[in-house]
Every structure is written in structure tokens, then in C-alpha cells.
């Protein structure tokens, strides 16, 4: 008996169903996700059985074909429901649902003769077209979701790989840290005693708020004190040699009185120089002690005009005592009715004395150059600006270069020749004004023309 064309379609649907299952297995990775996926490889068996039944019993109903096709769709739907936690599987289930419902309705409504009632035929054809478009659309969406999930999986694998690499690096770093820590422990023990000595020396030299840099301060001290100590050592060595030569001369049977006199004169001169440079070293040490001393004075109402005038005359007379030939013009522009300022008089006087002395030193140095028509002039002005009292000290000396102005308030920095300054005056003055009186001390200058220091003090200061 020959199979009818309807039953012959089963021979086409059976391998098609097998291809659908294979594609589904590959797309959804069923061997890893579904424990009973091996049963799906026998999806073709019902189709072959139905074909044989139709051939043996001479059944020509298209319901056999539709029933097998509906069976395949239900198996696919069952697989998708089992994998509903997997997003592409849910999307495929959504894609299959309209098509499956359409086929189910068609199977139910088809009569025993294999024909649909005319009133349902057009409706089912229309819905079947929509279901096919829906199915294709969501299959494409599921494919894109699969790609996205695959990319996310690859990204997670890369992140895990990077994490494992970082963990391995952390282990290696921890090992290196342990080794380095062990190496540094010994060094730390050696440095601990040196650090203690360093802190002690630091506390003895200056207060912590007066030290911007320990290295800079130490270098400044060494530089300042080295010169007088070198002179003391050199003249002492020469004096020892001269004394030895004098003893040799005195031990001779025939002595040379003139040579002995010359040696004694030279020794006396050397001793004077040793004394001079010893005093110089002592003054540096004294300046260091003053720089590190915290003022314990109390603020009192102070007349800035009287204080400035007093220390201006004191500084001028002090310089004239050293150089009788020096003369300078003193200009004072004191604001009348200037209010009293809460200040520590001796400390503020030390600041003014330092600024005045520097101003006279500057104009004297320019005068020594022999410039024609030059007249040394130092000007002092006071005035009130709001709740501040300002004091200006201006000289027409050689001025201060820009590079020097940036360092002028640093401890032990000085532009004076060796032996004429310790470099502590302006540093002390700056600390007294800014820290002791909550004011400001600034400088402006133009090379070859002038230098001007400006002190600004609040009239009423909180303790």
C-alpha cells in the first residue's frame, strides 16, 4: 500500500524535528542545562510510528501530520518552560506561544475530514501569519540576548582572570613587603637613636613654629659659625708655631731681640684676632638663643609714634658711633592722634631697631660706592588704615634683588659679608610681628632705587 501525500509529509517532518531539536540543543546548551536532554534525540520516533500506522491501516487523515507537528511544538515548549530561568529560553517561549496556540486551535477545530470550517479558516490563516512574524522577530531578539549574555560571560571570565591575577600580585607584594619590613626594621633601630638626638638638637635651636626646614636651619647655623671658628683655629695654629719658634730663639746662646719682639708682636696680634672671632662666634650663639626664645612679655597700650622715633634715633646714633663720617637724612611722617596699640613694647622695639639698622646699613653701602649727588635718606611713616596701624620703613639704598627677597625672612639668611650679620634679625622680626602680634611684615624693593618694609598691626589684639 502506498502512503498518501499527507502521510508522506511525516517523512519530511521527522528529520525537520530532529534538526529543530539539534539547533535548540546548541542554542540553549541543553547538555549542560537539562538533565533529560538525551531523550530529545528520539523526537523523530513518533513521526515514523505515525507514518507506519497510516501506511499499515491505510489512514489518509491530515490529522496525523498536524498531530505530530503539534507534538514537536509541545516538546519544544516543554523544554523552554524547563529552562525558563534562562533569559533566551524565556524569549523563545514567548516567541513560540502565539504559533503554538494557533496550531492547537487549528488541530482542535479541524474536522474528521481534515478540513477547517470556513468561518475559522481565514481567521486562523491571518493569525498564523502574525504568529510566524512574531516567532521570527523574537527568535532574532533571543539570538541577540544570547550574544549579550555570552559577552557578559566572557567579561566575567576576564574579570575573574584579572581578579586572580591581582590576588597573585597581592600575595607577591605581601611577600615583598614582609622582606622589606624585615630589612627596614634593622635600619629603623639604627635610626631611632639618631632621631632622638636630632629632635633634642631641634628643640634646643629654635621653637617648632620658627623652623620651616630642619635641614635649611642646620645648614645656616653651620655656615654662619664655621667662618669664625676657622679663623680661631687658624690663628691658634699659627700662634703655637710662633711660640715654638720663640722658645727656640730664647734657647740659643746668642739671641736676636728684634726677632723675639716681632714674634711677640705677631702673637699678640693673633690673640686679638682670636678674641675678635671668638666674640663673633659668641654673638652667633647669642642670636640663636634669642631666635629660639619665646617672648613672655605682656601686651600693653603702646604709642607707636614714640616707639618708632626712639628706636630710629637709637639706630642712627649706634651707626654713627662706629663711623663718625656717616650722615643721613631722617624723614619722619608720623600720623597725629594715632591710637594706642596693644603690643609688647620691647619686642616691637627690637623689630624697629632691626629694620632701621638695616636701612642705615643699606644707604651707607650705597654711599661708599661714591655715586655723585647721592644723599642717604631713611624715611619712617605711620598711619591708620581701618583697624590696622601701618609702619613704613623706607631707604634709598641699593635695593634688594627679586631672588633675595624670596628668602629674606628665612633664618640665617643674610646678604651682609661674613662677620657683619648672623641672618637672624629679619627672621626674628617676622616672627615677632606675625606670631607675637598677629600682624604682617612685607617688603617691596626696586634695585638701585629703594627698599620699603611695611608692618601692619591690629589695634586691638586678642590674648
UniProtKB/TrEMBL annotation:
<dbReference type="Pfam" id="PF02518">
    <property type="entry name" value="HATPase_c"/>
</dbReference>
<dbReference type="InterPro" id="IPR003661">
    <property type="entry name" value="HisK_dim/P_dom"/>
</dbReference>
<keyword id="KW-0808">Transferase</keyword>
<dbReference type="InterPro" id="IPR003594">
    <property type="entry name" value="HATPase_dom"/>
</dbReference>
<dbReference type="Pfam" id="PF00512">
    <property type="entry name" value="HisKA"/>
</dbReference>
<keyword id="KW-0175">Coiled coil</keyword>
<feature type="transmembrane region" description="Helical">
    <location>
        <begin position="92"/>
        <end position="111"/>
    </location>
</feature>
<dbReference type="GO" id="GO:0016301">
    <property type="term" value="F:kinase activity"/>
</dbReference>
<keyword id="KW-0418">Kinase</keyword>
<feature type="transmembrane region" description="Helical">
    <location>
        <begin position="123"/>
        <end position="142"/>
    </location>
</feature>
<dbReference type="InterPro" id="IPR036097">
    <property type="entry name" value="HisK_dim/P_sf"/>
</dbReference>
<dbReference type="InterPro" id="IPR005467">
    <property type="entry name" value="His_kinase_dom"/>
</dbReference>
<protein>
    <recommendedName>
        <fullName>histidine kinase</fullName>
        <ecNumber>2.7.13.3</ecNumber>
    </recommendedName>
</protein>
<keyword id="KW-0472">Membrane</keyword>
<keyword id="KW-0597">Phosphoprotein</keyword>
<feature type="transmembrane region" description="Helical">
    <location>
        <begin position="39"/>
        <end position="57"/>
    </location>
</feature>
<feature type="transmembrane region" description="Helical">
    <location>
        <begin position="6"/>
        <end position="27"/>
    </location>
</feature>
<feature type="coiled-coil region">
    <location>
        <begin position="139"/>
        <end position="179"/>
    </location>
</feature>
<feature type="domain" description="Histidine kinase">
    <location>
        <begin position="220"/>
        <end position="461"/>
    </location>
</feature>
<keyword id="KW-0812">Transmembrane</keyword>
<keyword id="KW-1133">Transmembrane helix</keyword>
<dbReference type="InterPro" id="IPR036890">
    <property type="entry name" value="HATPase_C_sf"/>
</dbReference>
<dbReference type="InterPro" id="IPR004358">
    <property type="entry name" value="Sig_transdc_His_kin-like_C"/>
</dbReference>
<feature type="transmembrane region" description="Helical">
    <location>
        <begin position="63"/>
        <end position="83"/>
    </location>
</feature>
Amino acid at each position: 500500500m502506498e502512503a498518501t501525500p499527507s502521510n508522506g509529509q511525516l517523512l519530511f517532518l521527522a528529520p525537520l524535528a530532529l534538526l529543530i531539536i539539534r539547533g535548540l540543543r546548541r542554542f540553549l546548551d541543553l547538555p549542560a542545562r537539562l538533565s533529560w536532554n538525551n531523550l530529545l534525540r528520539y523526537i523523530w520516533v513518533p513521526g515514523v510510528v505515525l507514518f507506519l500506522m497510516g501506511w499499515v491501516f491505510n489512514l489518509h487523515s491530515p490529522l496525523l501530520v498536524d498531530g505530530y507537528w503539534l507534538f514537536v511544538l509541545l516538546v519544544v515548549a516543554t523544554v523552554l518552560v524547563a529552562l525558563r530561568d534562562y533569559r533566551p529560553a524565556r524569549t523563545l517561549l514567548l516567541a513560540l506561544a502565539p504559533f503554538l496556540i494557533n496550531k492547537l486551535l487549528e488541530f482542535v477545530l479541524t474536522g474528521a475530514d481534515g478540513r477547517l470550517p470556513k468561518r475559522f479558516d481565514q481567521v486562523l490563516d491571518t493569525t498564523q501569519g502574525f504568529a510566524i512574524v512574531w516567532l521570527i522577530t523574537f527568535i532574532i531578539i533571543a539570538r541577540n540576548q544570547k550574544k549579550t549574555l555570552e559577552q557578559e560571560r566572557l567579561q566575567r571570565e576576564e574579570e575573574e582572570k584579572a581578579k586572580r591575577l591581582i590576588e597573585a600580585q597581592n600575595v607577591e607584594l605581601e611577600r615583598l613587603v614582609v622582606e622589606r619590613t624585615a630589612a627596614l626594621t634593622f635600619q629603623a633601630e639604627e635610626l631611632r637613636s639618631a632621631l632622638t638626638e636630632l629632635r633634642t638638637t631641634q628643640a634646643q635651636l629654635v621653637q617648632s613654629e620658627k623652623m620651616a626646614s630642619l635641614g635649611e636651619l642646620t645648614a645656616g647655623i653651620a655656615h654662619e659659625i664655621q667662618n669664625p671658628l676657622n679663623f680661631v683655629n687658624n690663628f691658634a695654629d699659627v700662634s703655637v708655631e710662633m711660640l715654638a719658634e720663640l722658645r727656640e730663639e730664647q734657647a740659643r746662646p746668642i739671641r736676636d731681640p728684634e726677632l723675639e719682639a716681632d714674634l711677640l708682636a705677631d702673637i699678640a696680634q693673633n690673640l686679638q684676632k682670636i678674641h675678635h672671632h671668638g666674640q663673633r662666634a659668641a654673638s652667633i650663639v647669642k642670636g640663636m638663643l634669642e631666635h629660639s626664645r619665646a617672648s613672655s612679655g605682656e601686651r600693653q597700650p603702646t604709642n607707636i609714634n614714640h616707639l618708632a622715633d626712639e628706636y630710629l634715633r637709637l639706630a642712627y646714633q649706634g651707626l654713627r658711633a662706629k663711623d663718625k663720617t656717616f650722615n643721613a637724612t631722617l624723614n619722619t611722617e608720623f600720623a597725629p592722634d594715632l591710637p594706642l596699640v596693644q603690643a609688647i613694647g620691647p619686642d616691637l622695639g627690637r623689630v624697629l631697631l632691626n629694620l632701621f639698622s638695616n636701612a642705615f646699613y643699606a644707604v651707607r653701602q650705597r654711599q661708599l660706592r661714591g655715586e655723585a649727588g647721592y644723599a642717604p635718606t631713611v624715611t619712617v611713616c605711620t598711619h591708620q588704615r581701618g583697624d590696622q596701624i601701618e609702619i613704613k620703613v623706607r631707604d634709598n639704598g641699593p635695593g634688594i634683588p627679586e631672588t633675595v627677597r624670596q628668602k629674606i625672612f628665612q633664618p640665617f639668611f643674610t646678604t651682609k659679608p661674613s662677620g657683619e650679620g648672623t641672618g637672624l634679625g629679619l627672621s626674628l622680626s617676622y616672627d615677632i610681628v606675625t606670631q607675637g602680634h598677629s600682624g604682617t611684615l612685607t617688603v617691596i624693593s626696586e634695585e638701585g632705587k629703594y627698599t620699603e618694609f611695611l608692618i601692619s598691626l591690629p589695634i586691638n589684639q586678642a590674648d
